[in-house]
Amino acid sequence: MDWIEAGIGMNATKASTDTANTPERSVQLTQVMEWTDGTMLPHDDALAAEEPLEIRIGAFPATTPLTVTMRTPGHDEELAAGFLLTEGIVSDAAQIAALRGFVTSAAGKRNGVEVELRDCEFDPGQLQRNFFAASSCGICGKASIDSVRARALLPPNPGFRFDPEVLVRLPEALRASQAVFGRTGGLHAAGLFNAVGELLVLREDIGRHNAVDKVIGWALLEERVPLSDSILLVSGRGGFEIVQKAIVAGLPVVASVSAPSSLAVQLARELGQTLIGFLRGRRFVVYAGVERIAKI
After folding, report:
1. Which residue, of 9, 104, 169, 285, is most buried by count of CB atoms within 10 Å of its CB?
2. Which of 5, 226, 213, 225 is nearest to 98 (CA)?
3. Degrees to nearest 5, angle at CA 159 with 16 and 218
4. Per-residue pLDDT reduced to its tens digit, 84-113
5. Rounded Cα gap, residues 90 and 87, in angstroms
6. Which of 277, 274, 279, 267 is nearest to 291 (CA)?
7. Which of 112, 86, 85 is nearest to 99 (CA)?
8. Alpha helices (H) along 115-178
9. What 8-state DSSP symbol labels residue 5?
């Protein structure tokens, strides 16, 4: 695979758990006024950066715009690779011939990623991402589930087991490794752990689904997909889109510190994934796939 200006490759595994350095442009500083007990004082505040990322696909240089997503800059090539996998455009790392970041503005910001594909047929006119913004939508649930069924995804590894004593340690491990959140307090995180609770990779983003795509993209580019012996932990709620992306990547377990949505629970039960919510302290709730818990 030819990594063009991608900043990934031989050192990707080492960098995956190195949280000492904040990714470039992930944090922006601004001056604010803070009121405390009757006193107003100015100070500098760190904000989680949010900028658009344009993903283009095709053969260089004649690439076609695919989508624009709002994200926190950093690990953009992983985000693009994960997006292509979880949206069903590619199914294997070998189909990604090259990745290249490119400048999209007069300010010189690299807010674009071009992806050259091989042995991959697609219709650019039909590649449109579906966002289901309202849980009250009467047709969104059925359309979402049907779109996943149509992809004929396989149930995640039914033989994977994990110890709940390992699971309850993961939120603290995730929080301790959130470099950007520690400075801004404004980012979601997704962490990939093995069965004994070792952190394999952590990614942060303003969007929880982007953080998941970055993690899955890292795994894809490292040729670790399917992630049949891993646990995905997300810092927010476990929504449908996160469960769907995890199933595509072959993840048998998804856990979140908050609640899942009804559609996420339905999808996890239908496709045989273990879905855990309210993972806080020494308590969690199993919404699907309780059989993977080794000790009860």
Report:
1. 104
2. 5
3. 15
4. 999 889 999 999 999 999 988 767 788 899
5. 8
6. 274
7. 112
8. 140-149, 164-167, 170-176
9. S
Answer whether the bond into residue 226 is a cis peptide, omega within 30°. Answer: yes
Give, in order, the Cα–Cα distances in Å from 279 to each of 93, 256, 273: 32, 6, 17
Q: Does the predicted model carry a pTM greater than 0.70?
A: yes
Beta strand extents in 60-206 (DSSP E only): 62-71, 96-102, 112-117, 188-194, 199-205
* Predicted local confidence at residue 137, as pLDDT: 40
Task: Give the separation between CA 59 and CA 48, rounded to whole angstroms.
Answer: 33
Cβ–Cβ < 8 Å for 25, 73: yes
- CA distances (Å), origin 124, targets 58, 129, 151: 9, 12, 18
Query: What is the b/e burial string over 20-58, where b = at least 16 CB atoms within 10 angstroms of the residue's CB?
Result: eebbeebbeeeeeeeeeeeeeeeeeebebbebebbbbbb
Note whether 83 and 77 are within 8 A (CB). no
Query: At which residue do the structure tokens 């709002």 appear?
Result: 70
How many DSSP H helices and E strands does the chain contain? 9, 13
For residue 72, which amino acid is it?
T
Q: Where are the domains of the chain?
A: 140-292
Would you say how long the chain is, in residues?
296
- pLDDT at residue 80 greater than cutoff 80: yes
Domain 140-292, what fold? Cytidine Deaminase; domain 2 (3.40.140)
Which of 210, 187, 190, 192 is closest to 83 using CA atoms? 210
Vertex 191 angle, CA 278 and 69, to 5°: 100
Task: Identify the three-state secondary structure at position 255.
Answer: strand
